């Protein structure tokens, strides 16, 4: 910006050009001001219409000119001011009054090429006539033109305000609605914290009294804030806070990228910068108006020159504050080193050049710090404020601003630590103004999402997390039970172990143990005088690995260890020695891999080895040296790590690593090894060879009495089997084996096919419609025997099932409560059902008896052992806990949930569960202090009372839950490397360390898989570098250190009977010595199954599958996915009333409404805001139909009933929706009653903005009744993008109860709220539902846990051990 005075005209010329541009040849005085200092050309009242102005509304329009002149006469008030103050007009007086500093800018700050380019552009403009320039700028309307009528606050019509076309500007007021934004009644408390947060992009800032003139951002820094002076304009979109589990749903991600309408904001009341919370400084800039907070995203092209240097200075100071948080001795020199190491491209893109050390000495930056830094530091807690002023770099920046007595009170030699003696930190700063997150929210449900307390961890978790969560605030509570940190004893180092080269000088054999076919076997071998015997473990010179994926991982940077042998060598257990007929000397060895070569990679213990089920013959000369390996037994702690001995040859092993499954599981038990070795020659005792032999047999088609075996299946004549589909469907077919031929050479399996009862509209012999004997209209367990015979190859047989001929309804229900159980009572001839002839139904008696024996043993185990005592963390409304309890294998006695509404819901629906409404960190700290003999005070519960009766060690068998997912969520477009919420996983594992339960389960969004640790913060929420899949590695590493086996996988809830798509990553943990649960196999063929996920070790993370072939991973399942109609088709219908505000009611409208009410029996309710109650059925209402399928029958079970019986509720509750504005309601009811119809089908009077976003996405989407729900949302509004919230056949959105059914909650389940306004109550209910784990998935996990309990108990019974 250059402001010049012409001696001839004594008028000001305002030229948009380089900040440093000057003409040495002119005699006129020129003043150079930096572009980060606020400058505005104030207009004289006599400005003519020939003088163009920059209007905020024009910034989103293409502008061919980047420079123009504006002639502005000086005002009389400025006549006596110095030239510099005259140029900046009254704003200079504002600046002087508020003490803002005005720096000069050096010519060297701007590149010469850039100046030349801008001069050329300036010449292009100045060569034009004023008329030409004016016409060019007419491409977009100005603010003045919008206000030319003289009515500055004139409102447009309703439809104009809601459906503005491109280029139209909307005034901000309380009636402004942004697409995708939560309805405004959520913010009706009147608090600044209760107004919405929005995103402002393509923005400009200007003085409110002169809307045609832009200002630099600096006046917004003034204190007190100049309220009412400045305004802003730009494109506005809703800000979506990722506070839910709406993980990979594309609709949520798309909702965060909408361009939004151009809005002219009301007066700016507050400017928020460098906001401090959760031990971090917020990088974003916020402005607040009367109606909303706005995040400043990108300036408009015309405002960019005024904003760039300001934002550059903001970025530098943010970088300084971030570095000083982790290093209290940070200096200017340290920052200079950092700036030189920064990747330049993000800053070149943003500022036209990289951040440089010279920026630290620029007057503009020092002026910015002078205006900002003291305010930022004073906003911190008092004890931290003094500490910050003692940081060398901060002190330098404050010099000249602090008073001398303040400076003298700070000593550089004794800079205090942030933590107090009690390791706690005040993380509730009082920022200037009202801030965004610095005071307690009036809505408790919003308040609990802030995670104000530091994360509390236990010693082992703290030691491991300290290496990967650098920069986070973790408070270690408690002490180790043993001398875990002591230096290990009897550690062997390299200097104590002889080393061999590839060609040992001497090789001698020990005693001969066996000879056959010219090959001699020995009990030992002597290399260079060092004897090696069978059973020892050796370090081996690496060769060529045939597994290229593993070989590539071996050489990758993350797969390296501080132990030199772990990084570069191989490990092998000596199984036997032999010399072949050619005289070659060999050893056969069982392979181990170092921890850094597994999924753990760089997080692995430097002395950890893991067995793998692989072995090889290796040259005897490849032995490098001996090492010692301690094989851990269950309950034995891992070996303490030796950090200062990189050449240690002492290692430990406690688990097997399965690369394909990404599992760490128990070492084989002695009985398992002995059983596997049966049949092997005594001199070839290799466990891996035995396993390979079993696998070879497993993959062979072999004849057995009455049938064949293949891939672990034993099939006989009369067995019922699943058959892989030959068409595009993923539904497994069912048939009964009639005959088996040609085994093993040309195997053929002849099968009699069964049809699904639901596939055909059956008729009886009398011509009447037929229904299943279960009384359900649609029963997926009911089959019909056909006369069709088909022949299959054994590889098309994908498992066995169990089908019984049953006609009694009670017997049917008892039979089908087990997985893979079906029934039939008729056979078909075409579409006609015929009775089954007597004695024509046969089954394989031996297989049926075996099946019943399995069921009986499981029942006995359940009777002999109490259900596991469960402790659920981050319990929410109880989706996971309810599903676990429904399995019968878990009794959730304790639950922790910080949200008052969710805790109240959990407590109400689980009266026997002790629910603690308190922060998990504070509770864990209390428990550790209590169990260490202290007497801490009880913590208060946020739903009343005190948190008493907390469990003691030994009282918890199973800890499970899902830590908050916001930090990991895929819809979080502002991921932060230092997000404190990512550390809550550490807290959850600390509960495991303290209680040491038998089992552990962690649930979270798939985004957790891609979240790195120790990453650098990049642009636009990107995390750069760091530990790939860091959270996964941390969870695995920690559980292994705590003595657990661990496995993880991504499961799709729709594949387990949920009527929606919702993927979740699940971690199972089980103490060493007991069987770890498998993942449940899919039961429903959902159209979008779980996918493969890339892993840093090269092999993918495979989804769960029913496939028996380890080389095939399919998504076939025996039952169809639950559809929308399956889930909610039995609920009472109702419509929203059409308000007819935009389109007057016609005779046809009245006739249709009458038909729907009188004929279709669909009543209507007003859904427009201001109603005394919610639209729908506020009070419980009777069901209009009996359950029509098994899903409906299941969700209608009374409390405490787990079997699907005829008992069910008579009434349904929570069957209502929220209220909305008239225009939203009218649009909703005008969406055609067609599957997947959306806003594109609205009549012209109700059309939305025709933007690119609205062209390619769906608003007001209607569900397909035969399709599936999108991921359950924490908000329910018709105008949320791509969520399809409209009922498939009724004129409204989904109700609270219908959303609960999407998650599988039973109809007796009530959703509570601590709020007292109608909108907030409904929003609380939807938030709890949307954040829950789908109950069908939780139930499947509970049953999988039960199967592991049964296997463990039967194993202990065989070994004579007591029950668990």
TrEMBL record:
Signal peptide: none annotated. GO terms for biological process: DNA methylation-dependent constitutive heterochromatin formation; methylation; negative regulation of gene expression via chromosomal CpG island methylation. Keywords: DNA-binding, Methyltransferase, Nucleus, Repeat, S-adenosyl-L-methionine, Transferase. Residues 1-33, 51-119, 138-192 are annotated as: Disordered. This is DNA (cytosine-5)-methyltransferase. Its main location: nucleus. The active site is at 965. It comes from Pleurotus ostreatus (Oyster mushroom).
């Amino acid at each position: 910006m250059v402001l010049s005075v012409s001696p001839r005209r004594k008028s000001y010329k305002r030229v948009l050009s380089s900040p440093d541009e000057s003409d040495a040849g002119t005699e006129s005085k020129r003043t150079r001001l930096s572009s980060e200092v606020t400058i505005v050309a104030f207009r004289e009242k006599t400005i003519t219409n020939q003088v163009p102005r920059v209007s905020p509304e024009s910034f989103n329009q293409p502008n061919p000119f980047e420079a123009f002149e504006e002639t502005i006469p000086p005002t009389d008030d400025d006549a006596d001011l110095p030239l510099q103050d005259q140029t900046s007009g009254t704003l200079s007086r504002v600046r002087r009054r508020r003490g803002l500093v005005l720096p000069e800018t050096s010519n060297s700050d701007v590149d010469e090429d850039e100046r030349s380019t801008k001069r050329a552009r300036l010449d292009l403009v100045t060569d034009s006539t004023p008329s030409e320039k004016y016409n060019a700028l007419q491409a977009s309307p100005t603010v003045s033109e919008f206000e030319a009528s003289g009515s500055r606050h004139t409102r447009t019509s309703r439809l104009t305000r809601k459906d503005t076309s491109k280029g139209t500007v909307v005034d901000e007021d309380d009636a402004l609605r942004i697409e995708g934004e939560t309805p405004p009644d959520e913010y009706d408390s009147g608090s600044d914290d209760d107004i919405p947060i929005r995103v402002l992009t393509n923005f400009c800032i200007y003085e409110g009294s002169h809307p045609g003139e832009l200002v630099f951002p600096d006046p917004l820094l003034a204190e007190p804030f100049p309220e009412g002076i400045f305004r802003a304009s730009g494109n506005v979109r809703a800000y979506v806070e990722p506070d839910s589990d709406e993980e990979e749903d594309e609709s949520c991600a798309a909702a965060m990228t909408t361009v939004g309408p151009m809005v002219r904001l009301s007066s700016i009341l507050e400017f928020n910068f460098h906001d401090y919370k959760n031990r971090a400084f917020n990088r974003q800039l916020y402005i607040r108006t009367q109606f909303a907070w706005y995040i400043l995203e990108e300036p408009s092209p015309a405002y960019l020159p005024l904003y760039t240097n300001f934002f550059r200075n903001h970025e530098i100071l943010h970088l300084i504050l971030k570095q000083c948080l982790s290093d209290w001795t940070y200096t200017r020199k340290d920052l200079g080193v950092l700036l030189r190491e920064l990747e330049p491209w993000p800053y070149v893109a943003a500022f036209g050049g990289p951040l440089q050390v010279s920026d630290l000495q620029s007057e503009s930056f020092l002026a910015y710090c002078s205006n900002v830094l003291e305010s930022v530091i004073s906003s911190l807690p008092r004890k931290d404020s003094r500490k910050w002023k003692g940081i060398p770099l901060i002190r330098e920046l404050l010099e000249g601003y602090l008073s001398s007595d303040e400076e003298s009170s700070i000593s550089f030699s004794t800079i205090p630590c942030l933590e107090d003696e009690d390791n706690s930190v005040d993380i509730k700063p009082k920022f200037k103004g009202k801030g965004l997150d610095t005071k307690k929210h009036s809505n408790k449900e919003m308040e609990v999402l802030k995670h104000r307390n530091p994360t509390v961890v236990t010693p082992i978790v703290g030691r491991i997390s300290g290496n990967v969560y650098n920069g986070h605030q973790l408070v270690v509570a408690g002490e180790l039970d043993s001398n875990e940190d002591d230096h290990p004893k009897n550690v062997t180092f390299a200097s104590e172990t002889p080393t061999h080269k590839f060609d040992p000088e001497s090789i001698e054999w020990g005693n001969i143990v066996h000879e056959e076919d010219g090959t001699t076997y020995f009990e030992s071998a002597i290399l260079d005088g060092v004897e090696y015997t069978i059973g020892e473990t050796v370090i081996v010179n690496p060769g060529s690995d045939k597994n290229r994926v593993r070989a590539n991982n071996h050489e990758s940077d993350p797969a390296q260890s501080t132990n030199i042998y772990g990084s570069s060598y191989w490990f092998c257990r000596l199984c036997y020695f032999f010399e072949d007929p050619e005289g070659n000397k060999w050893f056969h060895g069982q392979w181990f891999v170092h921890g850094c070569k597994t999924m753990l990679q760089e997080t692995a213990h430097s002395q950890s080895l893991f067995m793998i089920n692989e072995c090889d013959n290796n040259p005897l000369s490849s032995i490098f040296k001996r090492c010692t390996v301690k094989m851990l037994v269950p309950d034995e702690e891992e070996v303490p790590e030796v950090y200062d001995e990189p050449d240690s040859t002492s290692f430990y092993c406690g688990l097997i690593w399965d690369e394909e499954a990404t599992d760490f599981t128990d070492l084989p038990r002695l009985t398992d090894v002995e059983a596997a070795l049966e049949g092997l020659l005594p001199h070839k005792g290799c466990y891996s060879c035995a396993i390979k032999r079993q696998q070879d047999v497993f993959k062979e088609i072999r004849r057995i009495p009455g049938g064949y075996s293949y891939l672990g299946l034993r099939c006989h004549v009369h067995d019922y089997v699943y058959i892989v589909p030959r068409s595009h469907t993923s539904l497994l077919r069912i048939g009964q084996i009639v005959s088996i031929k040609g085994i093993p050479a040309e195997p053929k399996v002849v099968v009699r096919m069964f049809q699904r009862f639901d596939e055909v509209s059956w008729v009886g012999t009398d011509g009447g419609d037929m229904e299943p004997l279960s009384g359900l209209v649609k029963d997926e367990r009911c089959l019909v025997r056909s006369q069709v015979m088909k022949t299959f190859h054994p590889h098309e047989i994908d498992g066995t099932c169990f089908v019984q001929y049953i006609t009694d309804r009670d017997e049917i229900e008892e039979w089908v409560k087990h997985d893979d159980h079906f029934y039939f009572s008729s056979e078909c001839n075409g579409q006609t059902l015929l009775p089954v002839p007597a004695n024509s139904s046969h089954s394989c008696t031996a297989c049926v008896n075996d099946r019943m024996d399995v069921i009986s043993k499981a029942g006995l185990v359940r009777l002999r052992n109490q259900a596991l005592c469960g402790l659920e963390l981050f319990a929410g409304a109880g989706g996971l806990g309810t599903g676990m309890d429904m399995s019968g294998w878990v009794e959730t006695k304790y639950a922790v949930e910080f949200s008052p509404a969710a805790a109240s819901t959990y407590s109400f629906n689980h009266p026997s569960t002790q629910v603690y409404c308190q922060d998990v960190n504070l509770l864990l700290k209390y428990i550790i202090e209590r169990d260490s003999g202290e007497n801490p005070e009880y913590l208060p519960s946020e739903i009343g009372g005190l948190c008493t009766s907390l469990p003691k060690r030994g009282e918890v068998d199973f800890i499970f839950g899902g830590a908050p997912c916001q930090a990991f969520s895929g819809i979080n477009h502002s991921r932060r490397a230092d997000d404190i919420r990512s550390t809550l996983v550490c807290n959850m594992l600390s509960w495991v360390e303290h209680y040491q339960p038998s089992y552990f389960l962690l649930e979270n969004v798939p985004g957790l898989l891609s979240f790195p640790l120790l990453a650098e913060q990049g642009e636009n929420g990107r995390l750069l570098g760091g530990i790939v899949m860091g959270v996964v590695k941390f969870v695995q590493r920690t559980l292994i250190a705590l003595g657990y086996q661990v496995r993880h996988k991504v499961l799709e809830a729709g594949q387990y009977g949920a009527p929606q798509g919702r993927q979740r990553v699940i971690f199972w943990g089980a103490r060493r010595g007991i069987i770890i649960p498998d993942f449940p196999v899919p039961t429903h063929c959902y159209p979008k199954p779980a996918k493969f996920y890339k892993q840093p070790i090269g092999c993918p993370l495979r989804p769960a599958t029913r496939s028996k072939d380890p080389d095939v991973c399919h998504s076939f399942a025996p039952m169809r996915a639950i559809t929308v109609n399956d889930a909610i088709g039995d609920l009472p219908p109702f419509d929203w009333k059409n308000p007819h505000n935009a389109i007057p009611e016609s005779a046809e409208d009245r006739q249709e409404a009458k038909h729907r009410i009188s004929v279709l029996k669909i009543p209507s309710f007003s859904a427009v805001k201001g109603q005394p109650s919610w639209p729908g059925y506020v009070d419980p209402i009777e069901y209009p139909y009996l359950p029509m399928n098994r899903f409906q029958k299941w969700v209608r079970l009374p409390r405490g009933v787990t079997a699907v019986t005829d008992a069910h509720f008579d009434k349904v509750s929570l069957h209502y929706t929220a209220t909305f504005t008239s225009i939203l309601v009218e649009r909703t009811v005008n969406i055609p009653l067609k599957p997947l119809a959306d806003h594109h089908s609205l009549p012209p009077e109700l059309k939305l903005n025709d933007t690119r976003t609205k062209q390619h996405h769906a608003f007001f989407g209607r569900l397909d009744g035969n399709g599936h729900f999108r991921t359950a949302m924490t908000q329910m509004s018709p105008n949320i993008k791509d969520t399809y919230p409209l009922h498939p056949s009724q004129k409204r959105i989904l109700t609270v109860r219908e959303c609960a059914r999407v998650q599988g909650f039973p109809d007796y389940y009530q959703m509570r709220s601590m709020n007292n306004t109608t909108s907030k109550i409904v929003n609380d209910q939807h938030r709890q539902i949307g954040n829950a784990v789908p109950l069908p998935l939780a139930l499947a996990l509970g049953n999988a846990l039960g199967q592991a309990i049964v296997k463990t108990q039967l194993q202990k019974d065989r070994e004579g051990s007591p029950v668990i």
